[in-house]
Design goal:
One of its GO terms (biological process) is DNA recombination. By secondary structure, the chain is an alpha/beta fold. About 55% of the residues lie in helices and about 20% in strands. Helix 2 packs across helix 3 and helix 4 crosses helix 6. The longest helix is centred in the C-terminal third of the chain and has 27 residues. The protein starts with a helix and ends with a helix.
Length: about 190
């Protein structure tokens, strides 16, 4: 275990030294939480470091599912040492039960970030679509294709929840870059 922890610490130091920012983007859900780890170099290049999903078992009690999300996020943070986290805001549709479930998953995600002292930015689905595709009502497929193009990937990240997590991270990095540009011009 100590060797694994040292290896993770060494990898984290290497990641931190190479990149200006490392964003962990999260598309929260109780059954499936999508994530994307995107790094930005000092000259603005964007690189996908990892993406995937955290899946929980439907038959498990909710508190154990939330614990699994929380612990898996800590594993990702150990491995990639993100400098910040971006989370999709809750979209309240017609399904109240689903909204409550997603809200619980968001709570586990936000707690994991708080325990690590990570700054968190939250974006609505429309803000993410606007930042990625230039249109707040873009279709899911358009967003996925733009994620692929922006990162120069051979394929669209799969599954869809992973692609959504990558889109959240990209939205954040592009938003921060834009804000930095505005600040430098104003100052």
């Amino acid at each position: 275990m100590a060797a694994k922890a040292r290896q993770a610490a060494a990898q984290a130091n290497e990641i931190q030294g190479k990149w200006d920012r490392v964003a962990l983007g999260i598309d929260p859900g109780t059954a499936t939480t999508g994530y994307g780890v995107v790094a930005q170099s000092p000259d603005g290049d964007l690189v996908l470091l990892a993406c995937g999903v955290i899946r929980t078992q439907p038959g498990q009690p909710m508190h154990l599912r939330l614990l699994e999300i929380y612990e898996d996020l800590h594993g990702l943070m150990d491995e990639f040492s993100p400098t910040e986290m971006a989370v999709e805001k809750l979209f309240f549709g017609r399904n109240v039960t689903n909204a409550i479930s997603v809200g619980q998953a968001r709570g586990a995600v936000l707690l994991a970030a708080a325990k690590r002292g990570l700054p968190v930015s939250e974006y609505t689905p429309a803000e993410i679509k606007q930042a990625i595709a230039g249109y707040g009502n873009a279709e899911k497929r358009q967003i996925q294709e733009m994620v692929q193009r922006l990162l120069g990937l051979a394929q669209i990240p799969r599954p869809d929840d992973a692609a959504d997590g990558v889109a959240v991270a990209l939205c954040h990095l592009q938003t921060v870059r834009y804000q930095d540009l505005l600040s430098s011009q104003a100052g």
